[in-house]
Design a protein that fits this description.
This protein is α+β, with helices and mostly antiparallel strands. Helices cover about 55% and strands about 15% of the residues. A five-stranded antiparallel β-sheet has the order 6-5-9-8-7, sandwiched between helices. A four-stranded antiparallel β-sheet has the order 2-1-4-3, with helices on both faces. The chain has a three-stranded mixed β-sheet with strand order 11-13-14. A hairpin with a 4-residue loop joins strand 5 and strand 6. The longest helix has about 45 residues, at about 5-50. The chain is extended.
Length: about 575
Amino acid sequence: MKLFKSMQAKIVAIFILVILAMVTGIGSFMTMNIVKFYNDEFSVMMEQVFTPALISELEKSAAQNGSDGVWDIISSYIGPMGIDTYRFYSILDAKTGNVIKSYDEAKSTGMEKSENIINAMNGKTGNVSDTEKSYMDYAVPVSENGVPKYIVYIKDTKNEINSITKNIIVILIEALAFAILIAVILGFFFSRTITKPIRDLTKNAERIASGEFDTISTVKSDDEIGILSNTFAYMSSALRNTINEVNSEKDKVETILQNMTDGILAFNLDGELIHINPEAKKLINRRFYDDLKFDAFFKEINADITMGNLIYIKDSEKTERQADIGGRIVKFTFAPFSKENKIGGILVVVHDITSQQKLEMSRREFVANVSHELRTPLTTVKSYAETLMDMPDADPGLQNKFLGTIAAEADRMTRIVKDLLTLSRLDEGQYEVRPFERFELSSFVEGISERMYFPAKEKHQSLRYFAPEEPFYIMSDKDKLEQVIINIISNAIKYTPENGRIEVYAGKLYTEAFIKVCDNGIGIPEENLPRIFERFYRVDKARSRETGGTGLGLAIAKQIMNQLGGNITINSTLGKGT
């Protein structure tokens, strides 16, 4: 054992062990891969020969000439099947597996029923490959009326590959002996000069450990130690570059976090804040952050969550919280992050969902409005109908009056549903816009104004159209645009008192056309203007119902103008007009 205490003997022993391991590994790898390649090659070759067309041909020939027909066809494929001294083919009975005819009678005598033969007897192609078997085989069923009748069986004894494998092993043993001899000689030779370079490498390792990447020395030698020394120096340079890249990536991540539109908070396992980006600072609305603790902060904003819940309980339903901070609804999403395969802390994503909450409130308000708008006429219809039922001998005039009210309320519900369906189709993009056509805008608006003249005259109102100095043409959907203009003029007539004034203008400004409807009616308060195009929104609900409005006209007009690529705006002063 004293022999192996010396560096020289150890190096020689290591060389020999390495050579043994390499040669053994390479030999095993080569042998296994050669055998596997031979098996795969055999399987692929058979699959290329026994195509569906050939199998169909075999089945036809078997039906006409029995096994002789199959034999005649297969015999013409000796070349593609690679039939030689080690490989032969036979025709088997599909019921018993017995040999009917064989290319090599001697090798087919006493042939075992392999797994592939059994598969073929069951009507399946036998193509199971096993590198540990002493042979390779392939079995193809030839069926008659869907029932296997014959089996074409190809078998390879592997004598050829076994011979190749033995030659490889002999070559590897010779190479191993020569390599061991060389290893002993080189080991003793190089061990004499290895001590000093090892000391140098040790010093270099110490310098790298202390972060001194620029003071790495190299050994001026072309041997393995010199290469190792140069590689060590290269490793030092690569490590320095890697550290620089890591720092660069860290800076990138830091930049991304600092400029995210969502806020980011990171806490360690002690609940201490270790990172916060500017957006998070803005959303959580605090003046100081140095004393920010996880549990204390979320208790302060009534978020009902603790560090223990996230780390130990791991309740997925408790990974999101909402809180009202400074009038804004803020959502917090919690996710533990890992450090060295252990939980290192909690990452909190902060998102302002105030607008989403407002949208949800609008949706609920819309549902409530729809329910209310439909309930009111339904209540009226039900009340009048019950009254008529309780008064069968009522005056015909009174009955007609009640029935008229019921019909009017039914018409009102019909208008509401129709407008809702129109909005639904607009929202889903199913409200078809016809191909745009070119038409003269002034005469188009003038025609609509003339049609609206009589509804205005009934209220003793003045409806005037002011045409531009020169006619001009636009491209749009005339029907949809007409629907919008009639809607706006009708609103002006409804909400302008008797003897009021309504003016309609058409014109162009640079490359855009405009249509303007002005009235001196009741006007709209300034605080109501932002919501005037919302569905079912009414400034004066009682008055709107009196005039028969559904509260959806302006919403429909807005949607149509969006589809036409245009816009609709409103200016109004309470008591002066719109």
